[in-house]
Design brief:
By secondary structure, this protein is an alpha+beta fold. It is built from 3 helices and 4 strands.
């Protein structure tokens, strides 16, 4: 999972040195930033639920899906 502080940094475009993930994988957060940019361009809404050492869940709702459920 991602710490609250790290999530805020990533949302603000801060790309840091490589760090290990829950399963030992390495990453800098650039993929996360690319996805956030793509979601914004497509006017999608997202929620992130994360617990350090447990994992992260991303919930994405497209504008089309929101309009159909209203």
């Amino acid at each position: 999972g991602i710490s609250r502080q790290k999530l805020e940094e990533l949302k603000n475009g801060v790309i840091s040195s490589s760090q290990s993930g829950t399963k030992g994988e390495m990453g800098t957060g650039i993929g996360f930033q690319l996805i956030l940019d793509l979601l914004e361009q497509n006017k999608c809404r997202y929620e992130i639920f994360s617990e350090v050492n447990e994992g992260t869940l991303f919930r994405i709702v497209s504008p089309e899906k929101e309009n159909k459920s209203s």
